[in-house]
Design brief:
Blueprint: H1 3-17, E1 29-38, H2 44-51, E2 55-59, E3 64-68, H3 75-82, E4 88-98, E5 111-113, H4 115-120, H5 123-126, H6 129-132, E6 142-147, E7 166-167, H7 196-207, E8 212-217, E9 224-226, H8 227-239, E10 244-247, H9 256-267, E11 271-275, E12 296-301, E13 319-322, E14 326-330, E15 334-338, H10 341-358, H11 364-374, H12 396-403, H13 422-429, H14 443-454
Parallel strand pairs: 6-8, 6-10, 7-8, 10-11, 11-12, 12-13
Antiparallel strand pairs: 1-3, 1-4, 2-3, 4-9, 5-15, 14-15
Helix pairs in contact: 1-11, 7-10, 8-9, 10-12, 11-12, 13-14
Length: 466
């Protein structure tokens, strides 16, 4: 590892180990429901019989359930009671999750604009994406979009949708981004978040031109989701081949059910990217605030490389990306302009898709290192944000150069099967490949590859392209 990479690794460790502000004590929650995870061997049938509850929703593959609260009890007291049950691993309220517009307005979240404004949008150039495209485009990488759905018929998204998407709002395979006649937030405006998922997907597609999008509907057309739906979406993404998961919403509480889902994604080598929120505060939320579990929390900057006025910030932020007046795709073959960390996160998710396509073998920690090493500084004219904006502003071009530099582990996959193993050792030993970039192919290259393999515990699986 180069000296620069070692320094970046220290930066990564510092960000992950930084003191984390507490989550809110209580976020809004769905009344009359409890989310629980049962221990291996325990059954929901026995649980319901024991507590006079009824199953409302389930994730059977993970033994996770939403159940009713028994008569005569409230949510808090019932959750506390069953946490002492040896057959219950965790119990939480079903917290609401959302992504409020930066200006707090009740209008549609985007302004419709023309194709010319889409073509002129600076987002790719602000993160130096064009330079990265000379090396990688996101081919072979699937990015799951946990959102309101995607307009798959949009010309910018045609042939970019991966199979296996699902709509957890109506339990169907219809993953469109369409009105549903909802005013679930009670502001007397219906369907104000239609287009959110299509905007997010268009940004991923633009930054990673060869990546695929896996649409997973977890947020309704009025902008509301729950911690249970988010967990459903994360597990579905894990089970359907995602290498990156974008979550442009969150909850102010810290439900165990989301922690468990994020932890599983991280263990599988999947990058989880989440928006920091638009409250202009240091308060963290889930999943963005779960940086200890490897989540990449994204704050927003403007075109002057300053933090956006609305962005959340704090020691839990990983990196920044443009989030002011961003132009992307909207339903009905159109284009729209919007602001928010919702649109900063997919720029980073697309960037990680590019990095993973160029270097699919590395674990999540190495991706953090690439982001840290390539990041640009936030404007020095900004004060009061020291240590609160992560590594700085995404610079995909420089991060890709770091990933593919001589001596990088990305050069160790000699047969391009997305795993480093003894076959690569054999190919390197009998080849003229200069893996460490010192100008000659020799035993030092073999040593470098062997050292890379030794970084992993016996039996530990190296990440592979999904």
């Amino acid at each position: 590892m180069t000296t620069a990479l070692k320094l970046s690794a220290l930066m990564v460790a510092a960000v992950l180990a930084a003191p984390r502000p507490a989550f809110a004590d209580k976020a809004p929650f769905v009344p009359g429901q409890i989310l629980l995870r049962l221990s291996p061997g325990a059954t929901i049938t026995a649980f319901n019989a024991r507590y006079a509850t009824t199953t409302l929703e389930s994730i059977p593959s993970r033994n996770v359930y939403a159940v009713t609260v028994p008569p005569g009890m409230n949510e808090d007291s019932f959750a506390q009671e069953i946490r002492d049950d040896p057959e219950v691993q965790s119990a939480d309220l079903n917290f609401y999750a959302s992504e409020l517009p930066p200006d707090g307005s009740t209008q549609s979240l985007f302004f419709r604009v023309g194709r010319a404004q889409y073509d002129a949008d600076q987002s790719p150039s602000l993160v130096n994406a064009q330079v990265a495209w000379n090396s990688a485009l996101g081919a072979g990488i699937t990015v799951a979009v946990l959102d309101t759905g995607v307009d798959a018929s949009h010309p910018e998204l045609a042939n970019r949708i991966a199979p296996g998407g699902f709509n957890f709002l109506n339990n169907s395979t219809n993953t469109g981004d369409t009105p549903a006649g909802l005013d679930s937030d009670g502001d007397l405006v219906f369907d104000e978040f239609v287009g959110h998922g299509t905007l997010v997907s268009g940004l991923i597609a633009r930054i990673a031109p060869a990546a695929k999008i896996l649409p997973i509907n977890v947020m309704d057309s009025d902008g509301i989701s729950t911690s249970f739906r988010l967990s459903q979406g994360i597990y579905h993404a894990i089970d359907h081949g995602a290498s990156v998961i974008n979550i442009s919403l969150g909850t102010l509480s810290d439900p165990t059910v989301i922690r468990d889902a994020v932890a599983e994604a991280h263990a599988r080598g999947i990058s989880v990217v989440a928006s920091a929120g638009n409250d202009g505060k240091e308060d963290r939320r889930s999943p963005a605030g779960l940086n200890g579990l490897g989540v990449i929390a994204v704050a927003a900057t403007n075109t002057a490389a300053q933090p956006a006025s609305f962005t959340n910030f704090g020691s839990w932020i990983t990196i920044c990306a443009p989030g002011v007046n961003i132009v992307s795709t909207v339903p009905d073959n159109g284009y729209g302009m919007a602001s928010g960390t919702s649109f900063s996160a997919p720029i980073v998710a697309g960037a990680i898709a590019v990095l993973r396509s160029g270097c699919p073998i590395v674990p999540n920690g190495e991706i953090h290192t690439f982001l840290a090493e390539g990041a640009m500084p936030v404007s020095k004219s900004t004060s009061g944000y020291e240590g609160m904006l992560g590594y700085g502003i995404l610079n995909l071009g420089d991060s890709t150069a770091v990933a593919l530099a001589p001596g990088s582990p990305c050069r160790c996959d000699r047969n391009f099967d997305h795993v480093v193993d003894i076959e690569d050792l054999y190919l390197l030993f009998g080849s003229t490949i200069d893996a460490n970039g010192d100008g000659q192919a020799d035993s030092i290259d073999l040593r470098d590859l062997t050292n890379w393999l030794r970084r992993f515990e016996p039996g530990e699986m190296l990440p592979s392209a999904q």
